[in-house]
Amino acid sequence: MRAWSVAIQLVTTRAFQTTKAFRPKALTHAALTTALSVSTTSSSSAASADTTMCKNTAVSNPLLQSWAAQPFHLPPFEEINPTHFQPALEAAMKAHIADLEAIASSTETDFDSILGAYDRAGSLYSKVGGVYGNYISSLNTPDMQEVQSAMAPILSRHRTKCYNIPGLFEKVTSMYDVREEMANKGEWTDEQVRLAERVYTAFVRMGVKLNEEEKKEYGDIQVELATLQTKFMQNILKDEETWVMVITAQDMAGCPEDLVAAARQAAIDRGHEGEDEYVITLGRSLVEPFLTYSTRRDLRKKAFDAWTSRGELSEERDNLSIATKILRLRKRQANLMGHTTFSNFQTEDTMAQTPENVMNLCTDVWERAKEAANKEREMMETFLSEKGDELEGGIQPWDWRFYAEQVRQANFNFDESELKPYLSLDAVTNAVFDVSNKLYGLKYVKRDDIKAYHKDVNVYEVRRAKKDSPDEDELVAIFLHDNFSRAHKSSGAWMSEYRSQTKNLIAGSDPIEGIPIVSNNNNFAKGSGATLLSFDDGTTLFHEMGHGHHGMLSDATYEYLASTSVLKDFVELPSQLMEHWLEEPVVLKEHAKHYKTGETVPDDLLARLKAASLFNEGFATVEYTACALLDMAVHSLSEYDDDFDLSEFEKKYLAEIGMPQGIVMRHRPAHFAHLFASSSYASGYYVYQWAQVLDNDVFAAFQETGDVFDAETAERCRKCIYSAGNTVAPQDLFKAFRGREPDTSFFLKNKGMA
C-alpha cells in the first residue's frame, strides 16, 4: 500500500495525447474510440484554408460549411449523412497539413508563431473529426461503418505524416530547448513551459527520432493497427446487434416489473412484436439484471455464454486472431522505440511510470479481493445448504449474480428492485445536475428546440454566475446527454467532445468557438414508461458527469492541455470522484423520489442500502482486477510465438493468479475494447484502480470538513482536479489539493479491504 504511494512520488509527467489534433476524446468505460481522436483547434493559417476548401471541395457538404448559423455553432446534425464524411475529412487533412507546413517554413521564432500556432492548427480537421468520432461511437450505422473501415488507414497515415513534416520537429525542439531559460526570465508562463514539454514528448513518442527506414515501418504499423482495431470494434458491435434471446413472459420468472417492461420494449424495437415476445440483448443494462433475477438457470447460462463470448460468436468475426495480430504489432512498435515490451513503452509516460509499479498496486488489491470473493462464495454456499438446495457443478459464473442477490436480500433485507422505483432516469439526472450546481455553480437549461443526431439526445446550455457580476450568468458549455441503448451505438458509457475549451483562438473568431461542446453517453435499457435505474446505473451516470465536468470546467489557455488531455492514470479521478455524491444520504433524500407517487426514499431503505453496499465487493473487484492484471501481463511478453493462443493464455494466467471459482473477467479478450479497439488503454486498464486511490482520498477531504458540499473544498477541487487539465503535472495537482502524497488507506477502507 505505502509502496504504491512511493511509486506515485517517483513519477514523471506526460500527457496521454500525441498531438492535440489526435488526442483521445472518449473516456471511459467501454467502446472508447477506434475513431479519429480529435478535438477542436484553431489556426490563423487554417482560416483561409478552411474557406478555400469549403468553396472548392463540396459547397453542399454541411461538414465543410460554416456553422455560424447554428445555435452555439453546433454541428448541423439534421443535414449530416455518412456520405459527407470522407470528402470532408480529405479536405480537412489537406488544410491541416498546410497549417503545419506553414509553421515549419516560417522564419518566426517566437512562442506564439510556433507552439501557439501548433495549438491552433487543424481547425477544419478537428471540427469535422469531432463529429466523425462521435458518430462512429453513437450512430455507427452500416453506412458509417463502411466509411470508418475506408478511412481508418487513411487517417492513420495522415497522423503519422503530421509528425514528420520537414522542419516541424526542429521548430518544436527549439522551443523545448529554451523552455527553462524563458521561464527563468519570466517571459514564459508555467503553462507555456508545460506545452513545450508535452508537444516535444508527443513527437518523440511518435518516432520522429527514428531513421527513415524505421519511420516508415513505424507508420506502417500504425496503419495496420488502425485497421485491425476498427475491425475489432465493429465485430463486437455486430455481435451485440445480431444476438438476441427471444423468450416469453413465463421465461422471465423472478424478474422485476421494470426489467420485464424493458425486455418487452427491446423486443418491439427489434421487430419481435408478438403478444408474448420478450428480448434479452447483449447490452449490459439488460443482460446483467436478467442474470441477477431470472430463476431460469438454463436461460441465465445461455445469456451469460453469449455475453462473455462477444467477438467470438461467428467464425467470420474472429476477434482473438485480430487481438493477437495487434499484440505482435505493438511489441514491434515498442522495440522500435527501444523497449523490450509494449507495457514498458506505454507506462513510461504515465503517473505509474513502470509496469512494476502497476503490478505492485494491482497484486496487493488482488490478494485482498480474492479473499473477500471467496468469503462471498462461502456465504452463498451456506445459503444454498440451509435451504436444502443442491446446485449441479456448484456456483457457476451464470449463477453468481443471482445467488449474491438472494444472499443480499436474506442477510441484509435489501432488494435492488425495491430501490429502483426511486431512481428513475429523470430523478438521477436532476440529482447530478443539482450536485453539479451546489459544488461548482453550474446550471443546466434544457433546449428542446435544438435537435441532435438522435431523437433521444437532450441538449442543454450550461451556465454559471459571472465572477464580477453574480446577478448575471454566462455560458460555460453545451451539454449533450445520450442515455439509451440502441442499435448501432457502442456499448458501455463514455464522455466525448465535439469542441474543447480554449482561449487560444484565431484573432477575430467568435468567442463561442472557445466554449466546449461536451457529450455524455450511456446505455440504459429504455422502458416503455419511466426508465428506472439500478444503483450501479445511477453511479455510471454520475461517473460520466465527472468526465463531463472535466470538459465543461476546463480553464486552460491552450487546447492541447485542456479538458481530459491528462495522463491516463489521472483521467479517471474526476469521473470516479463524482460517484461518491450519489452515495450521500443528503442527495438521495432530496432527489430519490418514487416515480409514481413522488414519495421520498425511506430512511430504512437507505440504511439497508448502506449495510449491503460492501457485499459482493470482492466479486466486483476480482472481476475488474483480473482484467487489469491480464492486460499488463499479456503486454509484458517479449515474444508472441507463431503458436501463441490468446484464449489459452487467458486460461493459464487466470489459473496461475488463482482466479476464484465462479467468476470470469469483466472483459474477456475477444471483446476487451479498452485493449484492442484502440491503444489508449492498452497496458492501461489499471488506471481505474489507480484513480480510485486518488478519488477516495480527495473525497475524504470533503468528508473531513463535515460538509460534502463545503464551498472552499469544492473551489479547490475545481481548480486542481477539474479546471487545470494538463497545464500542471498531475502529481503536483493532487499535492496542491491535498497538501501531501496520496494515501491508499481511504481506498482500501471504502472497499472493505483495509
Task: Give descriptors for this structure.
754 residues; mainly alpha; 5-stranded mixed beta sheet; 30 helices; 6% strand; globular; disordered N terminus
What does this structure look like?
This protein has 30 helices and seven strands. The chain has 754 residues and is mainly alpha-helical. The strands form two sheets. A five-stranded mixed β-sheet has the order 3-4-5-7-6, sandwiched between helices. A hairpin with a 7-residue loop joins strand 4 (458-465) and strand 5 (473-484). It is globular. The N and C termini lie close together (10 Å).
Brief account:
By secondary structure, the protein is mainly alpha-helical. It has helices at 2-9, 44-56, 85-105, 111-120, 123-138, 142-163, 168-177, 179-184, 190-205, 212-242, 257-269, 284-293, 297-307, 319-336, 342-347, 355-387, 397-412, 416-419, 425-440, 535-552, 572-579, 585-591, 603-612, 617-634, 646-657, 673-676, 687-705, 711-722, 730-738, 745-750; strands at residues 245-247, 278-280, 443-446, 458-465, 473-484, 494-499, 517-524. The strands form 2 sheets. A 5-stranded mixed β-sheet has the order 3-4-5-7-6, sandwiched between helices.
